[in-house]
Amino acid sequence: MKAEYFRYLLEFKRPSGTSRGVLHEKETFILEISENEKKGVGECAVFRGLSFDDRPDYEEKLQWLCENIQQDYEVLKAYLKDFPSIWFGYEQALLNLKHGGNIYFPSEFTQGVSPIIINGLIWMGSVDYMEEQIRDKLDQGFHCIKLKIGVDWKSEYEVLKKLRQKFSKEILELRVDANGGFSKDEAETVLQQLADLQIHSIEQPIKAGNIADMAELCSETPTPIALDEELIGITDFNEKKKLLEIIKPQYIILKPALIGGFAGSDEWISLAESQKIGWWITSALESNIGLNAIAQYTFTKKSPMPQGLGTGALFVNNFESHLDLQGEMLWFKI
Predict the structure, then answer these.
(1) Any idea which residues carry the catalytic annotation?
(2) Which of 99, 133, 156 is at the close of a domain?
């Protein structure tokens, strides 16, 4: 078995706004594992400024993996415990090596029989730009929309209010993602305003790491809270369990590239379900390689909720896509 990697820079078609700033490009690394003339491809989707493994020695660890690819699975897993995006790419490459083609998790999804329902994502920007995106998603037939908020709440709130006046919660499910953009005091006010608009949930209202404050918010919130960045960097199973027991969120958001790949996601799901915490899966600006693998994994988990998967359409230089979005349904192209 042999392995090699290469760096790839994804370029956004249009700068994408988040509470952390405007993104123009996204760095990623493609891992290829070969054996007996077969090849498996995976994406080590590091997210600079967010990933737990955004470290100066990232490529050094990736090179180490390539040089030690013959090592036992458990040995590699222990060594790469603090490099979730590298492990994510390794899992993909092994699965693809096993199944071939563009397959990672064979299912009715990869047979082109059943789709995945996803939410429409609205990026931050001017009110006009946000409303333009919303009209586009509604025209496409989306029944669940997620808006990035936390930069200009007054304007963002007006957009949400207009939406809710036009569409009831039975017709349009609205989710918001603050990316930690509010203080605790601000969040308390925002949570009530969101409840008045019958918003489904808010992701990460305050910055990760403020566990006591987040636990207090979750215990009293009129709007369900979903943990997102809060999960990043917690690699020990018992620590994961403790975090959920302390905060008691209504939901958790699973981004495989940021939380230890599919193995890490499976741990979080088992813990959440044991504590009656809801969950859904979200992509994190992966290329079409990682996105394809996440979509296939997501289908196998059989969640009835709209999932937060991208479509690969954000970038001008993405890889070939094996996914096809028809309305709010994401299909696998055979």
Answers:
(1) 148, 255
(2) 99
